[in-house]
Amino acid sequence: MRHLHFTQSLEPLQGGGLGSSALGLHRQMCVEKIPSVLCATHGGKPQQNSKAIREYRRVGPNALYFSPGLLREAPGLVRESEIVHGHGLYVGTNYIFGRECRRQRKPLVYHVHGMFEPYILARSQWKKRLVHVVFENANFKTVRLWRALTLKEADQIRGRGLKQPVVVAPNGLNLADFEIPSSQPAPIPGLDKDCAKSEFRLLFLGRIHPKKGLDLLIKAFSELGSASRDWHVVIAGPDELGHESVIRRQAEALGIMNQLVFTGPVSGDVKTSLLHSADLFVLPSYSEGFSMSVLEAMACGLPVVATHACNFPEITEVQSGWECEATMESLKSALETAMESGAVERHERGQKGRRLVETRYTWTAVIQTLQHACAAYC
User: Fold this and answer.
1) For residue 156, which of 305, 1, 290, 340 has the smallest C-alpha distance?
2) pTM for the whole thing?
């Protein structure tokens, strides 16, 4: 089968985990000799250099993700494909490819990626209603197969009244990409060269966005007292909506700016080195579909503190970290337990997370599940 994937962007800020997961799935298909093409828009310059990845300059408001060049080439792209995969919802790429799938009667697979989470649905409701009228209602009727990242997301799909088949297939990764880099990565802004540290390191990796719960983290960390004396917090990721300035002001007001480091976006070997340098990973989100950053932390043998809203119950099941509610008190309690547990226990929990990724979350296993579902329903 020839597969065509589309998503809004592969840029770190505009695409985020959505773009990276679509890219990871496409790349693994190529590795396994499954014909695959990935399309996305870009605002400044293309992010990838590959014949199988097509990036088209977008115009108009950034949030529309609309590209005239993609509109022109979509008929040919769809014609050359047997199955079309849409990663994400509500943007111009969905309008273009949904319409073309209907015209050519090609099967459309929709990958929700957390967009049916209540937190996400509650945002920009009137815009989503308009988008449904313009094209998503028609696209939803065209979909042959829905992909859910978790059983919870499968229930959310059914809760929308959608009757088509649903396959549960999480995101994955390649473990080889998360080994300690053999070459020396570039220094990280704000940190000592080579990620060296003199204190324990608590790492957040992701977009600096209100839904990520950094306000909870700053407040909880400030109240840990002696438990946090030998720790500092590294916040790595792109600033979105100017939220970094909000978090900085909060940290200054609470008197903990001297224990915080903001690195900006990190990727490749620099990101991997940073993950391996940390002692504990934290994701205090109010809402997640399926977090790639948690998966990457586990792949690096890092114990995790995450909220239940991150939809990763295996953290508790295999004891690879500590789960909590998306409240300051609950997060504070989980962080305190993790920080005072000792280096040996944190290492053991990190190794349990690594084994979990090895058995359940490689791209090869994910693609096998998707291939079977596509063969059955597409």
Assistant:
1) 290
2) 0.82
